[in-house]
Design goal:
It is a multi-pass membrane protein. This protein is mainly α. Helix content is 76%, strand content 0%. It has one domain.
Length: 300
């Protein structure tokens, strides 16, 4: 393997590990300013928080001996998904097989995070996990359809610029934006954490290293979703640029999308659990129906 490839791999791994916590720290500062709070003292606060939790005593919840194992696997899956996606973008090899791998890793990370809470015996954690699973069942369908339509439209736009195809691309990207926001677990779709109630949902039994692993995994997943959204939006404008410039543009724009999601969450209010799920289901079905109709029109 040549030296430039090794250097690029090192850069990709470093970006995968360090940028998500940095993005979370910046989001916390921005959100505090919007809400007229002091907020964390530095944008590096997330690093400090994760380290502080990681060095504490490991306490495994009663009846949850598998929690540590599943949490560790979830973290490895999230790191792999983030690094592989950034590498795919850097090499510009977003083939159907790579797309399937990315979706599989993201879905696997979601499932493992949910299993982390199901392995505890706390009823609040179990309820939070089932809420998360129910939400993701609907959301994953929309995410997969949105990414699939977006990638297909991007490939076809090189030879076809019909209004139907452009409209299909815009709508599919909009679906990806909606589903990635929901997957990030921000307001009002943080129902798995039971924030409107007195309990802490899936987090109630986690502390110390377990909470550090869970939090880091969740942060990695949030940035990965923002990065994928950035790639789908920027590709029409960066298709002919240098791979290094494309990678830098996607990493930067992914950070901007991450912050815009945080800005949106700071302005939104909470909603009822059943209402948020119904709204997501209705919106997803409408957008998918529009994409199917546009695909049918494009075939004639």
């Amino acid at each position: 393997m040549d030296t430039p490839t090794l250097i690029l791999q090192a850069v990709v791994v470093t970006l995968s590990l360090l940028i998500p916590p940095l993005a979370d720290g910046i989001e916390r500062k921005v959100r505090a300013k919007i809400q007229f709070r002091v907020g964390p003292p530095t944008i590096l606060q997330t690093f400090y928080d994760l380290r502080k939790l990681a060095v504490k005593e490991l306490i495994v919840p009663k009846g949850a001996e598998l929690t540590l194992t599943i949490s560790s696997i979830a973290l490895v899956t999230a790191v792999t998904a983030t690094a592989s996606t950034i590498w795919i973008v850097a090499q510009d090899v977003f083939t159907p097989a790579n797309l399937a791998l990315t979706v599989l890793l993201i879905s696997g990370s979601h499932v493992l995070i949910s299993l982390t809470s199901l392995t505890t015996s706390n009823p609040y954690a179990v309820v939070g996990s089932f809420r998360k699973i129910l939400l993701q069942v609907v959301n994953e369908v929309g995410f997969f359809v949105g990414v699939l339509y977006s990638i297909t439209a991007l490939k076809n736009l090189t030879s076809d610029t019909s209004p139907q195809l452009i409209t299909s691309y815009v709508i599919s990207v909009a679906l990806v934006v909606i589903t990635t926001y929901v997957s990030s677990g921000r307001v009002p779709y943080d129902i798995h954490e039971a924030e409107p109630e007195l309990a802490s949902g899936v987090l109630i039994e986690l502390s110390g290293p377990l909470l550090s692993i869970y939090s880091y995994t969740h942060i990695l997943k949030k940035y990965l979703l923002s990065f994928i959204t950035a790639y789908l939006i920027l590709t029409p404008f960066t298709s002919l640029t240098n791979p290094a410039i494309k990678l830098a543009a996607n990493v930067t724009f992914g950070l901007m999308i991450y912050l815009s999601y945080g800005f949106t969450a700071a302005l939104l209010g909470r909603t009822r659990i059943d209402l948020s799920l119904k709204t997501l289901t209705t919106t997803t079905l409408i957008i998918i129906s529009l994409l199917v109709i546009l695909s049918w029109l494009s075939s004639y």
